[in-house]
Amino acid sequence: MLDILVILCMAAGLFFFFGTTVGIIRFPDFYTRTHAAGKGDTLSVMLMLAGLALYNLHHLSLATLLVSGKIGIICVVVFIASPTATHAIMDAGYEAKVRSWSRPGAPKDPDDDGQDNSGEKL
Amino acid sequence: MKKTALIIIAVLGILLLRAAEDLPSWGDPQSPASVHLSNYYLEESYEETSVPNIVTAVLADYRSYDTLFETVVIFCAGITVLLILRRTPRRWPKVISPRPNRPGADIILQTAARLLVPMMQLFALYVVAHGHHSPGGGFQGGVILGASLILLALSYDIEMALHRFKEKFVLLFSAGGVLLYAAIGLVCLYLGRNFLAYGAWADLLGISELAAHSHGMLGVEIGVAITVLCIMFSLYIDLASGGDLDEGL
User: Fold this and answer.
1) Residue B70 within a domain
2) Which positions in chain A touch B100 (Cβ < 8 Å)?
């Protein structure tokens, strides 16, 4: 029973990790890529850590409970730190006026001053 | 000139490669290093120091003298950056542009930092205190403590972090950590033992020699942690503000 839960958690985590990686490589610009890294990473790391914490509870004792509790604390820290770091990176990009992607041929964004400071080929 | 340098590098490289042939092969159990000294540490260190983590026992007890001067090296590095950057007349304008003033825009960062900094500092104290039993110790814990202060300075600003931990105290404590380390050793010398032979503390504290070794190592680790913390923070504030400590990244 526990094994099925663990496998489900780990498989879901791996799936989201794969999605994150594809997103980081394939999305068109800085903002969308960072978005993929921030969301997918957090969720998949938490799923995989939850799987590990559950797996560790096979022999229920104070020691394994302690280790699972520590993994839980890591989950909390990742949940706070990872999205905030992504937010900070994206905010810095916005502050440096990195141009955002738009569909070719779409009407131009009036806020866009035409300067791309990102040094990045879109 | 370039050709000479190339020839020197080539000759030195060949010499080093020839010398490397005589080194024992990787992980060889019969090599001199693993025959004489390692066995002694593996078998005796727990009986002699009552510290289960052999790395800590070797680092902070058997080779304590070496670790003392490693800490001094870190202290010197911090002081050198300080000497170069602080109060030096500036010939060129600052390269780092001042950070834009955006009231209210950093609220997410600041809230997260307020949540994370206490957790980081608690974890750092755990790493320092638990270095006897698990990986960790003074250097690692000090770095985490310093990183928590740097996070504070990054998400608010340098002035706020310096208001919490004045530069005067940063520098006093960075020297104080090394001095605490040396003082622990000097007390042993005063009591007629070798420098940093922690067994001398047994009578002072009223504990057994084994416990004195363990506590001596803890004291030494705390000294290292204080120095590393202060030097990390000092490096950050000087580099980020170009030595002016007014504003920075």
Assistant:
1) yes
2) 95
